[in-house]
Amino acid sequence: MNRRLSRTALTVMVIVVLLTAGILYGAYHVMKKAQPFALGEHCLIKTSEGTLDIDIDQAQVAATIAAVAAKRELPERALQVAYVTAIQESKLSNLPYGDLDSVGVFQQRPSQGWGTVKQLQDPVYATRKFFTALVKVKHYRTMPLHEAAQAVQRSADGSAYAQHEVTARILSGAFTGRVPKAVHCWYPPADKPVKPQTAAARKQLLRALGDDSAVKRGWLVAEWYVVHAQKYGLRQVRYDGVSWSAATGHDGWLKDDKPAKSVQVA
Fold first, then answer.
1. Residue 171, domain extent
2. Residue 85 near residue 153 (C-beta atoms within 8 A)
3. Which terminus, N or C, of the chain has the lesser number of Cβ atoms within 10 Å?
4. In angstroms, rounded to a whole number, what is the distance separating the alpha carbons of residues 176 and 223?
5. What percent of the chain is modeled with pLDDT above 90?
6. Euclidean distance between CA atoms 197 and 232, whole angstroms
7. How far apart are CA 22 and CA 14, in angstroms?
8. 151, 175, 199: which is the final residue of a domain?
9. Of 72-76, 91-95, 187-191, where does mean pLDDT reach its minimum?
C-alpha cells in the first residue's frame, strides 16, 4: 500500500515539475520576445568593436557630436576623444549642473571662458567649443585618447578618460556612418497620433551637420534621424535598401521593398 502511494506521489511530482518547466519555458520566450519594450526607451548599437545599449537621450547627444565633427571634417580620432570626454564628464547627458559652475555634455565652465550657461547647455555649441580647443592640441591625432581629452579638459584625474576608449570606438563607428545599420532604437507608441515634424528635424540636423555635407553622409544622417525619431514624431527612416520603422523599432533595419538611394524620412 505504501509502495503504491509512493509511486503515485512520485508520478504526481514528475507531472508537476514538467508542467512548471513548460510554463516557465513559455514565459521565458514571451518575455524574451517582448524584452525591448519591457526595457522601455533604448537604442542598441552594434559594431565589430562590441555592443552598447544606451538611452535615447544619450544616443541623441552621441549623434550630435558626430555631426559636428563631420561638419568640421575632423578625423574619427577627434570624435573618439570627444566621446571619452563626454562619457566621463556627463555619461553623454546634457546636464544642467556639475562641479562648481560646470554644465552640459562636457561639463564646461562659464567662469573659464567656455561660454554662457545657456550656450553650454546646447550640445551643438558645446561640441563646437570642445573641438575648437582640441584641434589646438599638438599631436592630438596620435597621442592616447585620454591624454588628448585631458589636454582639453585639464581635470583632476585625466587617466579616468582611458576607461571609456572601447565605448568611444563603438560609438564612432556607428555615428560616423562607417558601420552601416549599426544603430536602432525602440520606444512605446505615443498615446495620441503625432504629426511627423520632418522639417524641424532636418533643420536641427543641418544646424549640426551643415548643408554642404548632409547629402554625402548617408548613414550618419540615417542614424541621426533614427535616434531623434521619437523627439520629432518620425515614423520611418529609409536608406540604402533598408528601412527602420518606429512601429517595429526593436527589429532594427529591415529590407526595403522600395530601396532609397538617399535618406528619406516620414
1. 46-175
2. yes
3. N
4. 9
5. 75
6. 5
7. 12
8. 175
9. 187-191
96 located within any domain:
yes
Distances (CA, A) of 62 to 43, 80, 164, 191, 265: 11, 10, 14, 27, 20
Instruction: State the pTM of this model.
Output: 0.84
Q: What is the number of structural domains in the chain? A: 2
Q: Are residues 146 and 223 in the same domain?
A: no
pLDDT given for residue 16 in this prediction: 43
Spatial contact of 161 and 80, defined as CB atoms under 8 Å apart: no
DSSP letters for 175-243: HTSSSTT-EEEE-PPPSS-----HHHHHHHHHHHH-HHHHTT-HHHHHHHHHHTHHHHT--EEEETTEE
Closest by CA position to 141, among listed 68, 69, 63 = 69
- The sign one gets for the Cα dihedral 247, 251, 253, 256 is negative
